[in-house]
Design a protein that fits this description.
Layout lengths: L2 E5 L2 E5 L5 E4 L2 E4 H24 L7 H20 L8 H16 L19 H32 L6 H36 L2 H39 L4
Antiparallel strand pairs: 1-2, 3-4
Helix pairs in contact: 1-3, 2-3, 3-6, 4-5, 4-6, 5-6
């Protein structure tokens, strides 16, 4: 939905998209679709390229990048879940790198609104990612603990805490979604404010400072946080109550 705000002498419009179609009553933003596919293509392409050129000798830059990333996520999974966390290293690496590419796409100049705007700045993609993660958390929790252990897990040390634990589980996908979406969306909004309210001869200074900080640094931090919480939630879901 497009909204307009009049601030000072500027007219700020947010929520614009390139290409909007309606299918069976649903609104699909095509720019979110194609940027998501581009990010997925980059992740898959770099992974397949590394696999083709992998060597047991001196690694190249791409292999060194993947090995470092996998090693970091492996350490995180082992500390959060233990040896059973190793099967989730691929998930953690994929989630982090995919969100990172999604966030960094916005750094490429592509007009306003951008043809390569970060798809994570639209609530639909963060929500889909959060639901997938939470589904995997509960699936692996039942697989590890069994149905009886799964429901006993909510009771914890005291049965009186069960409602609180249930509410906590319900809020996890909500907080995962809006933590990522809110930070990316607010960064894009800030760029729009700078361009709209600051004269053209001076706005480039603000963009030169804010755009790299927001889209590169904050984008990387948000990707790391989402990947970190993915591993932590899996660890919490598979932990046995004592």
């Amino acid at each position: 939905m497009t909204k307009s705000f009049v601030l000072a002498s500027g007219n700020i419009t947010i929520g614009d998209h390139h290409g909007v179609v309606h299918v069976f009553g649903m609104t699909i933003y095509l720019d979110v679709v194609w940027t998501t596919l581009i990010a997925a293509g980059i992740v898959l392409g770099l992974g397949l390229l590394m696999r083709r050129n992998v060597t047991s000798g001196v690694p190249g830059k791409l292999q060194l990048f993947w090995e470092t990333l996998v090693e970091q996520v492996s350490d995180l999974a082992s500390s959060a879940i233990g040896p059973e966390g190793l099967p989730f290293v691929g998930l953690g690496v994929t989630v982090f790198f995919f969100i990172l590419i999604c966030n960094w796409l916005a750094f490429i100049p592509s007009g306003e609104p951008g043809f390569l705007a970060a798809p994570t700045g639209d609530v639909n993609l963060p929500l889909a990612l959060a639901l997938i993660v939470i589904f995997l958390v509960h699936y692996n929790s039942v697989k590890k603990l069994g149905r009886k252990g799964y429901f006993h897990h909510y009771k914890g040390a005291y049965a009186a805490l069960t409602p609180i634990n249930v509410i906590e589980e319900i809020t996890k996908p909500i907080t995962l979604t809006f933590r990522l979406f809110g930070n990316i969306f607010s960064g894009a909004l800030m760029i729009t404010v700078i361009v709209t309210l600051i004269p053209a001869y001076a706005s480039w200074i603000g963009l030169a400072i804010w755009k790299p900080f927001d889209e590169l640094f904050i984008g990387a931090i948000q990707a790391y946080i989402f990947g970190l919480l993915t591993i932590i939630y899996l660890g919490m879901g598979m932990a046995e109550s004592h």
